[in-house]
Amino acid sequence: MPKLVKDGAIVDDTWVRLDKPEGDATEAKVPAGQVIVPLSVWKAQREQLKSRSDIGVWLDSDESALELGDDAKALPLVAVNFPGFMDGRAFSTARLIRERFGFTGELRAVGAFIRDQLCYLSRCGVNSFRFDDEAADLEAAKQSLKDFTEFYQTGVDQPQPLFRRRA
C-alpha cells in the first residue's frame, strides 16, 4: 500500500485518486471506497456524491478554490495538485480552502511538489503530503516539516506576525 506523510507521521494512503475524465464528467465511474475525485466530476455528480462520507475532491492548479467553495466544509479530504514543483498556485488554493471556506479536514498536497516545499505548504494549511515519486524518502520529508522554527509572517498555523508575538 502506498505511503504518505500525514500530520507529521508516515501512514498508509487509503485513498484512491481518480484521474480527470477524458470525456463527459457525468459519465465518470466513481468506485466504492475512499476516492478523491477531480473537481469536474464533483461538479457534474455533486448530488449523488455529497451523500457519501468517503469522497474527497482534488483541485488542479488551474482550478480555483472558489469553484469548490462551501462544499469543502462537508468533505473529509481536499487535495491540491502540483503539476510541476515550480507551479505554486496550489499554495494559494490551500490557504483559501482553510481560511475562507473553513475547511477542517485533511488537506493534501499531491503531484510533483518537492520536499523543500513541505514546511511552506504546512504554513498554508496542508497537513498531508502524497508524493508522485514512489521512491521519495518519506523520513526526510517528515523532517523537512521542521526546517524552520520561527516565521516573520502570518500563516494558517500562526495568525500573528512575529512583531505582534514579541510585543
Regarding CATH, which class?
Answer: Alpha Beta
Helical content, roughly?
25-40%
By CATH, the topology is TIM Barrel
Return the string of H and E elements: EEEEHEHEHEHEHH
Protein described:
The protein has helices at residues 39-49, 65-68, 89-99, 118-123, 138-144, 162-166; strands at residues 3-6, 9-12, 16-17, 35-38, 55-59, 77-82, 106-111, 128-131. The model has no long low-confidence stretch (mean pLDDT 92). The chain is an alpha/beta fold and 167 residues long. It starts with a strand and ends with a helix. The chain has one domain (3-166): Alpha-Beta Barrel (TIM Barrel), CATH 3.20.20. An eight-stranded mixed β-sheet has the order 2-1-8-7-6-5-4-3. It is built from six helices and eight strands.
Name some characteristics of this structure.
167 residues; alpha/beta; 8 strands; 26% helix
Write the layout of secondary structure elements.
Elements: E1 3-6, E2 9-12, E3 16-17, E4 35-38, H1 39-49, E5 55-59, H2 65-68, E6 77-82, H3 89-99, E7 106-111, H4 118-123, E8 128-131, H5 138-144, H6 162-166
Parallel strand pairs: 3-4, 4-5, 5-6, 6-7, 7-8
Antiparallel strand pairs: 1-2, 1-8
